[in-house]
């Protein structure tokens, strides 16, 4: 998170941290964020190159990385339109993780509210994004690695489209842009929530290569995938 500050314990109770096991180093690494959306489901940012569920664990209810109480994953579900070739730029970078056991809401964690399908957010709407990613290009979050938060305004689709067209990138209808100079998500925040009016409206997806202040962050638009999300929640 660029331009942010420490988040208070319990302020973002749906925030999860996704730990991935690296067989080469035999270490677990906190690689990205996510949101608890149901007692047994969450959305993260999951690359396809890690298909083994035992290589994932989920951290809940903590603002600092912790090895305690991490939850096991039973299943990884990628959206059928996700393209390995185009990745986030393909417009369907969304996945669901099913936990091995359901969790009960507590004073430390609960699931996030999803927006109605008809929701729209005008340019300038204040929102918040959270994560444990870099705080500047190439600069990791320093110890004690407290979860960061930053307020970012929604950017109009047309303005965002023209910004990224200069780099040869296309903003699709399934994407949402937010950010302002010096305030943005960055590498390592992927999968984390964009929260507007206390609803999870976006998922950190991609942006400029160096978290440039001249470009907004790009998020997966949750309303574009509500039928798919709800289908899999009901099936659990």
UniProtKB/TrEMBL annotation:
The residues covered by the Peptidase S1 domain are: 1-234
The alphabetized list of GO BP terms reads: proteolysis
UniProtKB keywords: Disulfide bond, Glycoprotein, Hydrolase, Protease, Serine protease, Signal, Zymogen
Q: Which CDD domains match?
A: Tryp_SPc
GO molecular function (one): serine-type endopeptidase activity
Protein known as: Peptidase S1 domain-containing protein
Q: Which organism is this protein's natural source?
A: Myotis lucifugus
Taxonomic lineage from the root: Eukaryota, Metazoa, Chordata, Craniata, Vertebrata
